[in-house]
Amino acid sequence: MHSNLLFLSTLFYLILSSFSTSNLIPYQSDISILDFGRIIEENPIAILNPKSPQEISLLIQSIFSKNTKNIQVAPRGAAHSTYGQSQVLGGIIINMTLLPTFIKVEKEKEFVDVGGGDLWVDVLHETLKHGLTPRSWTDYLYLTIGGTLSVGGISGQSFKHGPQISNVLELDVITGKGEFVTCSEEKDSDLFYGVLGGFGQFGIITRARIILQSAPKLVKWVVISYKSFEQFRKDQELLINGGEVDYLEGFINLQRRNSSEDKLNDLVSYLIEFAVYYDDEDVAYKKLNHILPRLNYKESRPEITDTSYFDFLNRVRKSELELSKEGLWNVPHPWLNVFLPRSQIKRFKDLLLETIADTYTSGPIIIYPIFRNKWNPKMSAVLPQVDTEEDIIYVVSVLQSAPPTCTRGTPCLDTMLLQNQKIINIATTEPIVHNLLLPAECVMNEDREEMGAKQYMPYLQNEMQWKAHFGWKWERFQDLKRRFDPLHILAPGQRIFQKK
User: Fold this and answer.
1) Strands 168-175, 111-115: parallel, antiparallel or unpaired by DSSP?
2) What is the pLDDT of residues 58-80, one digit of tens each?
3) Strand 218-226 and strand 268-278: pairing?
4) What value does the mean pLDDT take over residues 179-200?
5) Catalytic residue among 118, 246, 249, 485, which?
6) Which of 128, 172, 310, 336 is the most buried (most CB within 10 A)?
7) Catalytic (active site) residue 249
8) Is 139 a catalytic residue?
9) Which residues pair with 454 in a beta bridge?
10) Which domain holds residue 27?
């Protein structure tokens, strides 16, 4: 161990000798590099606090030109990853949030140029000054542009406008060779499509050009409760097919099962949450009066809240502040996110609830439909393969928060992680991870009937699993890696490629 650290330190100072900047500092143990998951911790040897994209380029050029073995870099934005994806063992973290803020609205052309380290909430603030807004969001706005565009960026607007990666016109990217490339659908399109949803494997996003639209002032925020899953599902699909709502997500409310006598159906209810954006109150009421009578809710009356457009989009911030006060925000988050074929959604819901009902603690369970045709298949992001006539797929996000005492290495967190792995093993086409020493009941038969799910922001551990995840896109993904990051310098925390 000591000799390995000495070797890495020597390499670091070799880089430092040809990369003159006071912004590259040795890592100290009092600097936290944990991500939002707080599950994996891998320490770097240094941190770059860049004052410009040029410093990032020079650093990578220095590493690439020396063919420096074992030195890799990980761009770190808001660090909202959950399984160490923004970390790098013995390498260099690039603190993207310290880049100068760059948000330039082109009102006439309805787009905004933004820096890769800028936060979406800041982009919202700035575009609203011009009466404009991006079309597609994530539920939580304190994330960086480069971070969400590297994975997809989804929320309740995705059924209408696609994910955030479907709303990008142009990118500035620093490749794994340290080269600056401006790319779009027309120019260097292979890099453009590859970077969008590409987990940071081909380049670091330093600028993105995002599509804008006119911003509404107000929102009718509607919540409806259901006991029937089938009716809950049908009404969600009716709403997205109708096209009148501007946002839609669904939620599973689950009470923890404390006794074997508790029937699961008695512990579960479902919520549809949708929004209608508006400037004119009469127009909004006409929409609701057309929408609500077509829904088949019976258990309760709809709850309708009027709020500003900004406050609606920033709704998770209130929960964050409340949980932070109670010491419940900076806890482990063993999250699970998947895309599912429409035909498998009830089967997956049953598997999920049966698996976690006895141990569930807190955190939203989100489930909603989106359209495949809003995603460009040229991009790196992966969706389930379904019947060509079926355009609807489902997003399921199990965003559990562990109790504060349930930290890394404790049985309670291990149980939650094993439950996630059980669900993944059954639902996806990815190979079973036998080396996790799963309990016998978690290891399914090799000829199991798979659901065809695909993980969103997956945590996989070897090339075989990633090959299965990417499917027909894998060869292209490998080719892009060979061309734009041949030494495998970038984003090693994703565990897709080994260092060359």
Assistant:
1) unpaired
2) 999 999 998 766 799 999 999 99
3) antiparallel
4) 99
5) 249
6) 336
7) yes
8) yes
9) 339
10) 2-96+481-494
Q: How far apart are CA 179 and CA 198, in angstroms?
A: 17
Which residue out of 55, 80, 118, 235 is catalytically annotated?
A: 80
Q: By the 8 A CB rule, do 357 and 254 touch?
A: yes
Q: Which amino acid is at 50?
A: P
Are the C-beta atoms of 320 and 329 separated by less than 8 Å?
yes
Looking at residue 144, the DSSP 8-state letter turns out to be: B
Q: 224 near 297, Cβ under 8 Å?
A: yes
355 SS3 class: helix
* CA torsion through residues 194, 195, 196, 197, sign: positive
Percent of the chain clearing pLDDT 70 (strictly above):
91
User: Do 209 and 108 share a domain, yes or no?
Assistant: yes
Percent of the residues in the chain that have a pLDDT greater than 90, as a whole number:
84
If one counts the domains in the chain, the total is 3
Residue 360 in tokens? 């569930």
Annotated active-site residue 485? The verdict is no
Catalytic residue selected from 139, 170, 311, 450 = 139
**Identity of the amino acid at 427:** A
Is the pLDDT score of 319 beyond 70? yes
Domain boundary among 288, 313, 338: 313
**Backbone phi and psi for residue 391, each to the nearest 5 degrees, phi listed first:** -100, -15
Mapped onto helix, strand or coil, the DSSP state of residue 277 is strand
Examine the domain organization and report whether 70 and 161 are in the same domain: no
**Model's pTM, two decimal places?**
0.93
